[in-house]
Specification:
With 332 residues, the chain is mostly beta strands. Helices cover 12% and strands 57% of the residues. It has two domains: 30 residues; 301 residues, Porin. It has a 16-stranded antiparallel barrel. 24% of the residues are buried.
Length: 332
């Protein structure tokens, strides 16, 4: 009887303690949110084959709202205003993000129109999207966001994994069929400042698989960073034989707290499908990128970069393209 009484008292005491801790946490947390706005703009001067073109360019504008319902549950809605690339419209608004996220020390579960882990990590390693898109997005290996569900789990402080189920069309296109893309990634930090990432996805239709492999290695400190990314995709667009690959090497060095020197080299190539055709299937996008510049942190949320971008097309007879840009990233 005494043991039963002690057990009951311990249970009651435990429940009382947990109730008090929960009440304290609830009292200390106040739900709330804040708006977000970010603008990418630039002035470009392009030289190719003896011709010169100058223009101001508003690359992108993001407007949205982030809200924290509790310490572990949050939501985000973001509108992306950009060139639709089709039709006569110069700008149009698209829903870039619209998701709920549950996050603890171990779990991260995100559902809705979500930022995809394979894009997000590569974008952060490059870090200068307002100047040039990361490899994964720029050459069409994948998209930045899609409608789906992503689950991430931290096994330890140095090892995490994520799985994602998504439509596969991206946030610009509604689900057109019953085909889904399944993805999985593994991220490790074996030593301080070094990150290694492996990723694979698969999308199947009518017995044909589109598969993507991505590998990222990055070493970062407060004063410098160096990263390498490699992507390979088989049967791009679910078309047999349309295989291609690309790699990107980028780095930056801090001169002081407000100035950084940055550089990047990309190489993208595709395969020949028809032996009678001398050109690879994606020849119009095959080539090498040479990028270098300086970034100035003018104020919190304001970054300006004069930079040079050189594109060397793989297609024979195509001229080398040089572009001098003054790029601005404005975050509010």
């Amino acid at each position: 009887m005494k043991i039963k009484k002690i057990t009951v008292l311990v249970i009651i005491a435990g429940i009382t303690l947990l109730t008090r801790l929960y009440a304290q946490e609830a009292d200390s947390f106040k739900p709330g949110g804040k708006p977000e706005a970010r603008v990418f703009t630039s002035f470009n001067s392009t030289f190719a084959d003896g011709e010169n073109h100058n223009k101001f360019d508003l690359t992108r504008a993001y407007f949205g709202y982030n809200y924290n319902f509790s310490k572990s549950l949050s939501g985000r809605v973001t509108l992306d205003v950009a060139d639709p690339t089709v039709g006569k419209l110069q700008f149009t608004g698209m829903l870039k993000f619209a998701y709920l996220r549950f996050q603890t020390d171990k779990w991260t579960i995100t559902g809705g129109v979500i930022p995809l882990p394979e894009y997000d990590l590569g974008d952060k390693r490059w870090g200068y999207r307002y100047i040039y898109k990361p490899l994964h997005d720029n050459y069409g290996f994948g998209v930045a966001a899609d409608l789906g569900l992503s689950v991430g789990y931290n096994f330890a402080s140095w090892l995490s994994a994520d799985v994602t189920l998504m439509n596969g069309e991206g946030y610009k296109v509604n689900e057109a069929d019953s085909v889904f893309k399944v993805a999985a990634g593994l991220t490790a930090i074996p030593v301080k400042n070094l990150m290694l990432r492996g990723y694979f996805d698969n999308m199947s239709k009518n017995g044909l698989d589109q598969q993507t492999v991505e590998a990222i290695a990055a070493y970062e400190t407060k004063s410098a960073g160096l990263s390498f990314a490699y992507n390979f995709q088989k049967n791009h667009g679910l078309k047999s034989g349309q295989d291609y690959q690309g790699f990107s090497v980028s780095g930056n060095i801090a001169i002081n707290e407000k100035i950084r020197i940055l550089g990047r080299f990309d190489h993208a190539s595709s395969v020949r499908i028809d032996p009678a055709d001398p050109d690879p299937w994606n020849i119009s996008k095959d080539g090498q990128l040479y990028l270098m510049g300086v970034e100035f942190a003018l104020a919190p949320g304001v970054h300006l970069s004069p930079n040079y971008q050189g594109w060397n097309p793989s297609a024979l007879g195509m001229p080398f393209i040089s572009r001098f840009s003054l790029s601005l990233d404005l975050k509010m």
